[in-house]
């Protein structure tokens, strides 16, 4: 290992060091503010270490990891997402548990797991990252232990994540049998052999679970409802984004899309996710469950970029994921900011007349929902537009019609929440009276809103960055 | 009598995997479900070691198996802590007790 390797690994090293630093600080003095600021500062330093890296040539670190510009872009996205979650969690936790500090150890560790997934060039590294992420998430979902559904959510996630990662390990074993190595990349898999095909299918169960694609989506609404709101945002964005980047890399290094059966399988999963996610979201009166179902649909949309040609698909995926990160984190951030110590603000009634009581939060949520719906002037529109372009160029007509149909349905339930926001407030006492928003939460929400609108109005800088970073071949 | 070969290991792993999957589906007791998950992981481990010895001839599989053992232990540690909390809330480790969320 050389100094350049270490420099390339700096984001991973700094994020791990953050977890260790918080751990040491907690043993010395238990102060919520200190732990939160250490965590946020460490994550910010890790982001800075990506931004300052000059060299863009791919670096292989042993057989396990590869740090290329693609990995750097998604690492930056993951770290920025984790940083926002850490800041939002500060205000959220302050009102709730009496043990805040361990949370800020688990959060950077979950981010390390996601970074390892994004940088992995080997099934061993991928499985390690996946498990590190899952194990931290079990504890984070159950963190409050006092809420109504958190233990239930943690048990559901634990059982299903355990089963799905066992499938992934089993799939890795079969792929290993076929090619004699766990590393990605050429020579491609001999997909004619049933062993390799079974391995890919088993691996797909593990990946599909984390992405909450349709046959594997049953845990999503329950876990989002039971988990603390910032952690629900983390699961919806960072964990999905990392696994999606891995899927993008794996499919193209193994050249799996050359096989018609895999294309059909992914097409069916994508169309089913878009339609089922949106249709199930229609029936929801619970805002967290609605966001959960809509996240299923959004990953379905993203699969279009996976199936499209690499030259248009990869930038489209990066743009769409960036927009989705901003809007989802913002929406869950507002849910967290409105929540009371005893329960999260997840009933539709909690949002009735919010625009008259808490105009800033209502405005933020409006921007996030419009972006999730893909309306113009928001980042979501730019994302959806590039997805459609990439789909048209590869003639994925079936998926594009599912996307259009899904988007039309989705506008209906997003508007339902928007209508509640701007409805006249009920004459009686508001259903929820939360204390004032702490300033870090306000700052994080303001940042997300500004970024969302800036990308929607003037996408050129982001598109340039993505062209430079997320497209490069590996 | 034929010597023990790759096929024997694969059959054993397949039987273990199916047993683990059945356990996870049928059991309502959280500890039982956890045992099922362990069976799944160990089935994968047997496969990895068998392929490492007989077909691939590299150590990658054996090393992954070593990591999987550690990961399984970490998962069990967290799982038992969560089940302990679940027990103190619901006075049972029957996972069907946690059914507040629907829809």
Structural notes for this entry:
- The complex is a heterodimer of chains A (474) and B (103).
- Chain A is mainly alpha-helical.
- Chain A has one domain.
- Chain A has helices spanning 3-8, 10-28, 32-52, 69-94, 103-119, 123-141, 150-179, 194-211, 219-226, 229-253, 260-282, 287-307, 310-338, 354-357, 359-373, 379-393, 397-421, 439-457, 460-469; strands spanning 59-61, 65-67.
- In chain A, a hairpin with a 3-residue loop joins strand 1 and strand 2.
- The model of chain A has no long low-confidence stretch (mean pLDDT 90).
- In chain B, helix 2 (30-56) runs antiparallel to helix 3 (60-90).
- The mean pLDDT of chain B is 89.
- The chains are: A mainly alpha (474), B mainly alpha (103).
- Chain A binds chain B through residues 123-124, 127-128, 131, 134-135, 138-139, 142, 145, 148-149, 151-156, 158-159, 162-163, 166-167, 169-170, 172-174, 176-177, 179-182, 221-222, 225-226, 283-284, 286, 289, and chain B through 17, 20-21, 24, 30, 33-34, 36-37, 40-41, 43-45, 47-48, 51-52, 55-58, 60-61, 63-64, 67-68, 71, 74-75, 78-79, 81-83, 85-86, 89, 95, 98-101, 103.
């Amino acid at each position: 290992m050389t100094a350049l390797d270490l420099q390339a690994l700096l984001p991973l090293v700094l994020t791990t060091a953050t977890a260790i630093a918080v751990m040491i600080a907690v043993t010395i003095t238990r102060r919520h503010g200190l732990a939160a600021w250490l965590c946020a500062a460490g994550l910010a330093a890790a982001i800075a270490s990506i931004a300052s890296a000059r060299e863009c040539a791919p670096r292989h670190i042993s057989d396990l990891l590869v740090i290329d510009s693609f990995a750097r872009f998604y690492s930056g996205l993951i770290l920025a997402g984790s940083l926002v979650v850490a800041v939002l969690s500060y205000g959220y936790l302050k009102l709730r548990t009496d043990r805040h500090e361990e949370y800020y150890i688990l959060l950077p560790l979950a981010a390390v797991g996601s970074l390892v997934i994004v940088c992995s060039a080997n099934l061993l590294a991928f499985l390690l990252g996946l498990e590190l992420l899952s194990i931290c998430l079990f504890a984070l979902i159950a963190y409050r232990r006092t809420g109504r559904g958190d233990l239930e959510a943690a048990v559901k996630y634990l059982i299903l994540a355990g089963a799905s990662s066992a499938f992934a390990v089993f799939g890795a074993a079969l792929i290993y049998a076929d090619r004699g190595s766990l590393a990605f990349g050429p020579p491609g898999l001999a997909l004619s052999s049933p062993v390799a095909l079974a391995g890919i299918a088993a691996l797909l169960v593990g990946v599909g679970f984390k992405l909450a694609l349709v046959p594997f989506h049953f845990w999503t609404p329950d876990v989002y409802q039971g988990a603390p709101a910032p952690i629900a945002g983390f699961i919806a964005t960072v964990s999905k984004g990392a696994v999606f980047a891995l899927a993008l890399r794996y499919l193209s290094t193994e050249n799996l899309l050359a096989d018609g059966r895999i294309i059909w399988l992914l097409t069916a999963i994508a169309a089913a996710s878009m339609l089922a996610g949106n249709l199930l979201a229609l029936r929801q009166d619970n805002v967290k469950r609605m966001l959960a179902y809509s996240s299923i649909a959004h990953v379905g949309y993203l699969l279009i970029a996976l199936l499209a040609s690499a030259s248009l698909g990869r930038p489209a995926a990066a743009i769409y994921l960036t927009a989705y990160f901003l809007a989802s984190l913002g929406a869950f951030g507002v849910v967290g900011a409105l929540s009371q110590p005893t329960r999260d603000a997840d009933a539709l009634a909690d949002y009735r007349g919010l625009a008259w009581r808490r105009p800033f939060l209502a405005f933020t949520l409006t921007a996030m929902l419009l972006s999730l719906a893909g309306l113009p002037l928001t980042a979501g529109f730019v994302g959806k537009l590039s997805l459609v372009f990439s789909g048209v160029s590869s003639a994925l007509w079936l998926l594009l019609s599912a996307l259009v149909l899904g988007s039309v349905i989705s506008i209906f339930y997003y508007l339902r929440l928007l209508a509640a926001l701007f409805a006249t407030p009920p004459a009686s006492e508001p259903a929820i009276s939360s204390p004032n928003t702490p300033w870090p939460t306000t700052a994080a929400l303001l940042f997300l809103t500004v970024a969302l609108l800036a990308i929607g109005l003037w996408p050129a800088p982001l598109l340039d960055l993505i062209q430079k970073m997320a497209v490069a071949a590996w | 009598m034929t010597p023990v070969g790759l096929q024997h290991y694969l059959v054993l792993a397949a039987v273990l995997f199916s047993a683990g999957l059945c356990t996870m589906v049928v059991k309502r007791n959280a500890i039982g479900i956890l045992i099922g998950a362990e069976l799944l992981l160990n089935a994968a481990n047997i496969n990895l070691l068998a392929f490492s010895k007989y077909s691939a001839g590299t150590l990658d599989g054996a090393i992954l198996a070593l990591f999987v053992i550690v990961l399984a232990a970490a998962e069990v540690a967290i799982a038992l802590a969560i089940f302990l909390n679940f027990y103190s809330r619901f006075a049972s480790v029957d996972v069907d007790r946690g059914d507040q969320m629907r829809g």
